[in-house]
Amino acid sequence: MSTLKLNGKNLASQTSSAEPVIASTVTGGAGLSGMTSLGTVTAGTLASSVVFPAGHVIQVVSDMTAFDGTGYLTADGETYTDDTHANGVLISNVTAGNKLIAMVSSGYAYYHSTSGTNCYFRIGFSPDTGSDTFNDAEGYYTRTQSDFTFQVVPSIQSLYTIPSGVTSVAVIRRVVSGSAAGYITWGSVNNKYVHCIIMEVQG
Questions:
Q1: Quick check: 160 and 103 in contact, CB under 8 A?
Q2: Which of 4, 21, 114, 157 has its CA 20 to 30 A from that of 42?
Q3: What is the mean pLDDT of residues 132-161?
């Protein structure tokens, strides 16, 4: 076996006519920048400082029984109600500047009103530090009859840029009753579960 050394350190070796093998003690440096091929990497761990291309999915959190056990989220009258941070679906170890894509759907939801016609189901983002954010993503429903109750299946998607200093974010709900005579509710009850999927995407 032939061995190539630099200052007494093994750099690579070759046995007979086999392909040369880089020594396991060789570490990478700035000289590896710009390389188009590293061959087959069979082991190793990417450090947390590695930056992926924009749009690359970093992690996914999925909860198919989201908000189960927290009861209904309700609003009575011309008002709205938000989840607390603790009741939200949490995604942790996020990086500032990346994007969160949240999709929340299904569950048991209905609206009743004797006069008003409109209700809204929304989702927002509750960071571990700073204020909750609700953008314009919402499910809007309206009825055409008076003194009427209707059941709906909300399906809402929303996008959020992770602020500086934030390391975890909870996706939360908001229900809005559009009438003083209205009542709106949404929850994971009666075996009808809210589904929540959150993706962190490289910014």
A1: no
A2: 4
A3: 82
Give the pLDDT confidence of 4-15 residue by residue, as tens digits: 888 888 888 888
Segments forming the whole domain that contains residue 141: 57-201
Q: How far, in Å, CA of 89 to CA of 65, rounded? A: 10
**Same domain as 87, residue 143:** yes
> Which amino acid, 104?
V
Per-residue CA distances from 80 to 40, 101, 104 (Å): 55, 23, 18
Segment 36-91, tens digit of pLDDT:
666 777 787 887 778 889 999 999 999 999 988 777 899 988 899 999 999 999 99
CATH number at residue 174: 2.60.120.760
Helix then strand then coil, % of the chain, to nearest 5: 5, 50, 45
Secondary structure of the chain in the HEC alphabet?
CEEEEECCEEEEEECCCCCCEECCCCCCCHHHCCCCCCCCCCCCCCCCCCCCCCCCEEEEEEEEEECECCCCEEEECCCEEECCHHHCEEEECCCCCCEEEEEEEECEEEEEECCCCEEEEEEEEEECCCCCECCCCEEEEECCCCCEEEEECCEEEEEEECCCCCCEEEEEEEEEECCCCEEEEEEEECCECEEEEEEEECC
**What residues have CB less than 8 Å from 165, skipping those under 6 apart?**
96, 129, 130
Whether residue 77 is found in the same domain as residue 168? yes
